[in-house]
C-alpha cells in the first residue's frame, strides 16, 4: 500500500512538471523568456550582460540585461510575418513571437503639390522709369543682374541692390531723340527722351518750341551781327553821300 502511494506521488510530480510551460518553470529560478507585441522579455538573466538573441536559429542582435537581471528586446524589422521561435545564447529556454501581417494598404505617392508662393521682392511689382540721365527700376529680385536693351539693342547690365532697386546710366553716345528702354526677360518698357547739347546727354528735354538749341542760338547771333554790320555799313554810306552832295554849298557858304 505504501508503494502504491509513493508511485502516485511521483506520477503527480512528473505530471505537474510537464504541465507547466518551460518559460514558467524558468521564472521559478533560472532564465525565462516571453514575447509581447513583438518584444522579447527576459528575466533572471545574469545582470549587466549582453546575450545574443536568436530568431528561428539566426542571430538578430544582443540584449542588454539590466542590473535586476531583466531585458526587453524588440524584434528587428527584418523579421517577417509569422510565428517565430526565440532563443537566447547560453540558455535552453525559448518562447515564440507572432509577427502579424501588415494590413495597411501599400503606400502611394502623395499628389504633387504646387510650390509655395514666393514673397514679392522689396518694393512690390517690378517697374522702370527714365528720370534724369538714367534708367531706374524698382521691385526686382535683390542681387540679380538685368540686361538693359535700348531700341532693341543690348546696351549693358544693371545689378539690383538689396532693396530691389537699380540705376543704369544712359550712355553719353546715345543719339538725340526718343528711345525705348526694355529690361531683358520682361515686358516692361520706358521711353527716354534725349537731346544733345554741347556734347552732353540731356534726358527729358522740354517740348519742342519752348527752348532754343545751341545751334539755333548761334544762328540767331550770327543773323543779329550781320544785321548790325549791314545797318552800320548803310549808315556810313549814307553819311558819305550826304557829304558829297553838300560839299559845294559848303564851299559857297565858306566864301561869303
Cα distance, first to last residue? 211 Å
Individual helix count = 3
Report strand order across the widest sheet. 11-10-13-14-15
Relative helix content:
25-40%
Strand-pairing-aware structural class: alpha+beta
Mean pLDDT value: 75
Topology:
Elements: H1 2-19, H2 22-27, E1 32-36, E2 39-43, E3 52-55, E4 58-62, E5 71-74, E6 82-88, E7 94-99, E8 127-129, E9 134-138, E10 145-150, E11 153-159, E12 166-169, E13 177-183, E14 189-197, E15 200-203, H3 214-255
How would you characterize the overall build of this protein?
- The chain has 256 residues and is α+β, with helices and mostly antiparallel strands.
- Helices cover 26% and strands 32% of the residues.
- It is built from three helices and 15 strands.
- The protein is rod-shaped, with a radius of gyration of 56 Å.
- The C terminus is likely disordered.
